[in-house]
Amino acid sequence: MAAKLFVKCILLFFVLITIACGALRYSQVDPAAKDFHPQRIAIFPVVDMGTYEESRGDVEQITASVLIEKKWFADVTDTANLNRQIQANEELRKAMTDYLSKLRSLTFTDPDLSRKIGELAKIDAFLLISVDSWNYAVENKDKVAKVSIGMKLIEASTGKIMWKAGQHKSESYILIKPDLPKVARSVVRDMVDYMPH
């Protein structure tokens, strides 16, 4: 009897450890997100990347491919496609510039500009991405590949942040450096699993 109880406790311990390891660094969902089901989503150019400019293309492409793989949305507009629309449409370019300017300087997501972007780009929501870490480092004498990403899902019609999350991963190595885009794909997959859809 005691042996069965011991085995059950050990199994429960490993289940709890697995669950704890699978959680995001943070994830916050707006209560209104339960009724939020966008069909068309766009990935904005990475808005905040600090000194990690080299990560921009990888993070944008990885995010688009993970969202397309999920098949949750009828249309996923990747950053390259959105940039083509911005270049072709002066009104959209001005709305995006003004929106991102207010977001950076005031941390305010302007509902009027958001709605205008949604109408002009024909999207229901857009995803803002930040890169907080994208490098190789030494931590406690261990060599690690570090990737840390943040995301915000904005409802285009209201400018409301429906979901925001952050996740990071460190992959240790001895001789062969792990591929940072591969680590980033794992981070993005973890995050997207928590995204309202």
What does this structure look like?
- With 197 residues, the chain is an alpha/beta fold.
- Helices cover 44% and strands 27% of the residues.
- It contains six helices and six strands; from the N terminus they run αββαβαααβββα.
- The protein has a six-stranded mixed β-sheet, sandwiched between helices.
- Helix 2 packs across helix 6 and helix 4 packs antiparallel against helix 5.
- The chain is globular.
Concise synopsis of the structure shown:
By secondary structure, the chain is an alpha/beta fold. The chain is built from six helices and six strands. Strands 1-6-5-4-2-3 form a six-stranded mixed β-sheet, sandwiched between helices.
Distance between the termini: 46 Å
| Strand content range | 25-35%
Main beta-sheet annotation:
6 strands, mixed
Query: Based on helices, strands and strand pairing, what is the structural class?
Result: alpha/beta
Total of helices: 6
Mean pLDDT: 89
Which bin fits the share of residues in helices? 40-55%
Indicate the low-confidence ranges by residue numbers. 6-21
The tally of beta strands, per DSSP, is: 6
Q: SSE order, as H and E?
A: HEEHEHHHEEEH
Rg value: 19 Å
For the structure shown, list the relevant keywords:
about 200 residues; globular; alpha/beta; single chain; 6-stranded mixed sheet
